[in-house]
């Protein structure tokens, strides 16, 4: 039995990709599997937390013992996360939120044409930054994938979004990040301090993430 260090705490986790529809059958998305976020949600549940898991489209089944809300787009994810975050003690933004959505979403399937097609994109709201702007006593955790200057960029991101820490990973590492069962991350704080964790299972990364979050929780 796991130590119940999240008993009575409310934890919100976002997971998976978002889909930004161009028309009813086409969308922009990314290869996020949701495995990292589901691991965080399951680990938090096993440590006694009341968990809300907000997930974009992934092939994983609903984990038992928590509230699961399935969404498609970044705007839907934002509504669900912001709603659930009211009164939460810890929010972990694992979701790979699409940065842009189509400026216009066609209600009918767009016919194929011979010419070049231009799609206008508009930025999606940054959910983590929004939560950081109203931080209160919540512990806020983000993820970041970077291809270069990872620690500096992640620290700047943590600062800008007012997150307590960010777990940085690289898309290029064999068997880690997108789709894999393992992950190799570096914990980065807004002050620029960091700790590189060894490559391990996503569940073990979740365990260490929540250890750090528990240390940051204010006492009652
Ligand atoms: O800025 P970047 O996308 O690299 O930041 C990644 C972190 O911010 C992740 O925790 C992700 O869930 C969160 N994010 C968000 N809303 C967005 C984009 C990213 O909450 N629109």
TrEMBL record:
Q: How is the cofactor bound?
A: Binds 1 FMN per subunit.
Q: Does the keyword Metal-binding apply?
A: yes
Tell me which Gene Ontology terms the entry assigns under biological process: coenzyme A biosynthetic process; pantothenate catabolic process
In this chain, the stretch annotated as Phosphopantothenate--cysteine ligase covers: 11-220
Query: Which pathway does it operate in?
Result: Cofactor biosynthesis; coenzyme A biosynthesis; CoA from (R)-pantothenate: step 2/5; Cofactor biosynthesis; coenzyme A biosynthesis; CoA from (R)-pantothenate: step 3/5
Keyword set includes GTP-binding: no
In the Enzyme Commission scheme, what number(s) does this protein have?
A: 4.1.1.36, 6.3.2.5
Keyword entries, A-Z: Decarboxylase, Flavoprotein, FMN, Ligase, Lyase, Magnesium, Metal-binding, Multifunctional enzyme
User: What positions does the entry give for CTP binding?
Assistant: 99, 109, 125-128, 143, 157, 161
Annotated function: Catalyzes two sequential steps in the biosynthesis of coenzyme A. In the first step cysteine is conjugated to 4'-phosphopantothenate to form 4-phosphopantothenoylcysteine. In the second step the latter compound is decarboxylated to form 4'-phosphopantotheine.
Sequence similarity: In the C-terminal section; belongs to the PPC synthetase family. In the N-terminal section; belongs to the HFCD (homo-oligomeric flavin containing Cys decarboxylase) superfamily.
Its recorded name reads Coenzyme A biosynthesis bifunctional protein CoaBC
| Parent-protein residues present | 207 to 426 of 426
């Amino acid at each position: 039995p796991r130590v119940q260090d999240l008993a009575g705490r409310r934890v919100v986790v976002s997971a998976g990709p978002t889909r930004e529809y161009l028309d009813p059958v086409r969308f922009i998305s990314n290869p996020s599997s949701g495995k990292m976020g589901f691991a965080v949600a399951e680990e938090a549940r096993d440590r006694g937390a009341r968990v809300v898991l907000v997930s974009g489209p992934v092939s994983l089944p609903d984990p038992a013992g928590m509230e699961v809300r399935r969404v498609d787009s970044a705007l839907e994810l934002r509504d669900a996360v912001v709603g659930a975050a009211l009164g939460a003690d810890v929010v972990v933004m694992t979701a790979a939120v699409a940065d842009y959505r189509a400026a216009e979403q066609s209600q009918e399937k767009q016919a194929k044409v011979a010419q070049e097609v231009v799609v206008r994109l508009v930025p999606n709201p940054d959910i983590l930054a929004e939560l950081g702007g109203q931080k209160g006593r919540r512990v806020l955790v983000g993820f970041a994938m970077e291809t270069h200057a990872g620690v500096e960029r992640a620290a700047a991101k943590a600062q800008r979004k007012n997150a307590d820490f960010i777990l940085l990973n690289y898309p290029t590492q064999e068997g880690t990040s997108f789709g894999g069962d393992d992950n190799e991350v570096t914990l980065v704080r807004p002050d620029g301090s960091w700790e590189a964790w060894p490559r391990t299972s996503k569940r073990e990364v979740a365990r260490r993430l929540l250890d750090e979050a528990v240390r940051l929780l204010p006492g009652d």
